[in-house]
Each structure stands twice: as structure tokens, then as C-alpha cells.
TrEMBL record:
GO terms for molecular function: metal ion binding; metalloendopeptidase activity. It comes from Adineta steineri. GO terms for biological process: protein processing. This is F-box domain-containing protein. GO terms for cellular component: plasma membrane. Signal peptide: none annotated. Residues 5-54 form the F-box domain. Keywords: Hydrolase, Metal-binding, Metalloprotease, Protease, Zinc. InterPro entries: F-box_dom, MetalloPept_cat_dom_sf, Peptidase_M13, Peptidase_M13_C, Peptidase_M13_dom_2, Peptidase_M13_N. Pfam families: Peptidase_M13, Peptidase_M13_N. Its cofactor is Zn(2+).
Amino acid sequence: MDGRTVHLLDLPDEILLIILKKLDSVDVLYSLLNVNKRLDQMARSVNNTKFLNFSINNVQLNRFCCEILSQIHQNIVSLTLEIFSMKRILLACEYPNLTAIVLNNFLPDILLQYLTDTIEMEDVDVIMSMINKELGGWPVLKGSDWDESTFDFDRLMLKLSQYNNYIFYVVKTDVDEKNSSVRSIHYTLLIDKLDLRETVRTTVGNLSNTISFDSSNYIRRLYLLANISVTDADSVIVTAPKLLHGIASIIDRQSPRTMQNYMIWRFMMDQAKHMPKRFRNILQEYTRVFSGTDTEESRTITCANYVNTMMNLPVTKLYIEEYFHKDARKETTEMINNIRNTFITMVNQSTWMDSKSKIIAIKKARAIKAKLGYPNYLESDDMRKLDKDYAEYNFNLSYMPNVLSVMQLHSKASLQMLRYPIDSEEWSDILPTTVNAIHRLLGNEILFPAAILQTPVFDKDAPKYLNYGGIGFFMGHEIAHGFGDEGKEYDMNGNKVSWWTKATVNAFDIRKKCFIEQYNNYPLTQVNHSINGEQTLDENIADDAALRQAFLAYQQWAKTHKNVDKKLPGLTKYSTEQMFFLSFGHTWCTKMTDVAVYTYLLLDKHSPAQFRINGPTSNFVEFNRVFGCKAGQGNSRVKKCNIW
């Protein structure tokens, strides 16, 4: 060593380490690794390789990916990457201790593409592996390599059911229709929107005598997957047995290849929303044909909806804490009671229902259980029930395996309900985050989720004429469903018992013809079609009753709360009663594509939105009075249809 030059290797370790710490770790590794044993040890030290910032050129990148990373990958905790180097560095080796990645110079859309491309290709591999190993393969892909002698319809049905994926028939646990305090097995067709009211009650042991093909073994094996042993004596409610037999006959006539291709295709269409874009494009084209929608919803919305559906109660808890005020429950409870009392008055005043049926109808109306917002226990800070309900939800970092796992958990939970007692506080058939409401005939319940108790149909601080015209209509609609063509078959306890007298049934049948004729004559010029008055009958009668209930209930409230409701700025020319009807009409502002309207007319039991306004208002004399109309003028009918 002379006075002018200091050789790096001549420095003691302590000094050399201080110098290296002041240098960029990537530069140190590139320059010193594989020079000699002493420098290798220092360059590879944990402190020098924990945090690496890769802002390097292609020559350096090649050496790192081919030589250096494999020697230090176990030490790396954090990587700072740029767009051109990220893929090569991440694929160069595994990083077992990596906990953070910092991305420089990434635009959001480029980052999303990188992340989704990687995730989605993994999803394809997972699904295809499952199809080949568990479901027997997909003949359309395997071609002549697929052996039809391996086809086992019962096994494939069972396996798909295990993933909560029903193709032809649905087996589910639900409230027993004859005894709403217990549950039974329900066996039905998977046909969208079809009105299937014919049911036959049998047992697992006698099932083959009811539907002429033996499904008892399938049901036993399915429930056994959820650790539930089914006995010959367990009740089965079979819906539309003749249709079930007809579909079974069609299935029997198909070749194994046709059945395997069809069933796997159905499964893949259900999973397409989780798959890469080329798969989603196929689903989108299918959707476009039936709805006319050309745009795909964002991945963010798709994923959020999926989490909401599959893990709804935790999502609901977050939702109500953020968006739902507790006072809303108090106010909507008061509204429900007012509208219920109005309906009871309407029953008493009806001229077609005999006294015996009226007495039972009033008892049933008073017994209706209203569930508002969400299950009560979600208000509590005690998380034990949620923790218990979701104890088996264990996730890893791969998306598709998580999806498949959750599907199995949902199937298992549904089947296990067979041996659980009925909880009067539980929510079923509708999620609290759904913008809708339902009447559960089995149980005599009406449910109004937190998500519908929001603007524009409800606001706890809004004038009552807006709330009664909005959510009040929906409340009346769901109450009325307990007293129509279907509701007359279920008693006050939610058991399937016909409670109308023959005279009342005959009188109802005469009156309902008016509604059928009225709606049959509504033309939908958008698609040059008319409404099917038979198909939409029950909903049309409920709409008609709902508007009357909500308006009369508001009038009763206004009598005892004079001058409480104030007019709104810019709308002072309208009376409070007129504002009620404007609120009602505003609820149904809708725009649909031609294809969506046509599909809606074919399949839906509701009338299109404009006729859910025109129909009830045209029959209501109070609407005429409020707006100064005469019968036969404008929308007002001369021959008004009326049940309640």
C-alpha cells in the first residue's frame, strides 16, 4: 500500500462493510458477486440483499436473472421493480420471504393488466385440471381421446352438486311446506322464472314411486358429502314431478358425449365470470343475446358482487355500519304497522270475501312477521356468531382455488341445515345487501333488506309522502302477496293449508278476470308485443293493492300529523297527495334494451315498469280525485278492476 492508492481487498472487513452499505445493493451484487470468497460472503449478506431496487439496463438484468438471483433469493424481503424488468425478475426464481413489491412508473391500467393476466392464466389451469381429474374431462377438447365408457351421469351430477352447481335438478334444504317449524328436502327443476306450483310430498324411501326414476341414492350420497345421513323416512317435497319425468326421458335419449359436453359447458358458463377475458367475452356475447347489453361490468364490480354473495353477512355488517342508520328501522317498522292496519281495514270492507275467510285473513295479516334491514345479531359488537359461521373459510393467495372452496362450503352449509332447528331470526332467500323485497309464504314473513331502505324509495329524513309513495308501496305489495292466488294456499303460520272457502275462491276468480283482460290489452310498442295478463296476474293484483294501502295509510298518518310534512323547494305547486303519486312513479323510472324487454315479457312474472304505474293508478279513484281526472280521461279506466 502506498500513500496514493488503497486497494479494496486490503481494507479490513469493518471498513469494507461501511463502504458497501453506502452503495446501492444492486450495484454491489452486480460488481462484487463471484469475484472471490470474501466479497461473495459480504455481497450475499442478509443486510445487503433484503431490499433490492431494480432500476437497471438489459445487460445487468440478464446477469441478475441468469446468475445472481438464484444465489440470494431466500434473503429478499422487498423488491422495487419497473415495468420492463418486473416479469423476468419475478419469474426468475421463487422468493419464499418476499413480503413487499414496490412498483415504479406503472400506470394503473398496465399494472391491472399484469396482475390479472398472471392470476387469470392460473385460473384456467386450475379449472381445466379440475375438469380433467374430477369431472371426467371435456370431450369437445379431448376429441377422440375421450372414452365414453367412463361417463357416469350420477357421479357427474353428484360432483357438480358438491360445488353448488346444479344442472337439471336442484336439491336443497328448505322449510317444510306442511310444518314451517321444521325443514325438509326439496327436489325441483332448475328452470328460470317458471311458475311451478304443483308439488308432491313423499319420502326418500318412496321417491322412485313418485317421479318414476330413482333419485334417492343421489340424495343420500349428496347429503353424506355434508356428513348428513338421510333416512328412508326423511320427507321430500317434489315440485312438478311430471316435468321432472319428462326431462329425465330426454336425458336418457342422449349420447354420453352429448351429456358430458353439455354439463361441462354449463359448469364453465357459470365459472366464466372468474376466467380470463377471452372466456368472459363468450359469456358477454351470450348475455348480449338475452339482454342486449354490449358492455361488460368492471372486474371491481364483479369481484365485489361475488364476495357480497358468497360472504354476505360480514359484508352486511360493514355495509350497515357505514350506510344504515338505526333510526331507519324504527321508522319503517311504524310504516309497516300502519300499512298492515290499512290492509286489515280493506279486508273488512271487501264485498267478495265471506266472513269466515275474512276472519282468517285478518289473523294472517296480523301474524305476518316483518324483517327489516338485517339479522339482529349484526348490530352487536360480539363477533362470535360470525366467527363460527365462517370458521371454515380459509383462503390462500390463488383466486380460483378460493372460488371452488367457497362453492363447496356453500353447498355443505345448505345441506347441513336439514338437521338444524328453525331460527325465527334467520334471513333466507334474500341478502340484506339486495335492492329488493320478498314475501316468504313458508313462514308468513316479509323481508326488506337494508339496501332497499335507501333513497330513492326511503330516507328517514324525507317527508312522509315520499316514503309512503316509495317504500310504502313495496310494503303493501309484499303484504298483498299473502292474500292472492298463491297466498291463499298458505296459512298464518306459513304452512301449506288452503284457507279460503269455495265461495271466496269463486268470487276471487271472477274478479281476477278483469285484471287479466286489462293487462292483456297493454301494448308494449317498443317490441310490438303485449303483456301476458295470466303470467303477471299475481304481481298485478299485488301492485293494485299496494298503491291503495300505501296511499290510505299515508292519509291516516297525515290526519294525526297535520302540517308536519313540508313541501319541497321547486315543487311547491304540488299538494302532498300529488307528491305521494310522483314519488311512486319516480320509483319505476326504467330504460331497457329491446332484447331485454322481449326476454322480460317471456320470462318475468312482473309487468314492465311503465305498466306498474299505469295499471294501479288507472284503477284507483283517489288518483282521479288528487289530479282532477275523470273516468275514461287519459290513463283513468271507466271499468276499474279491484280486489282489495
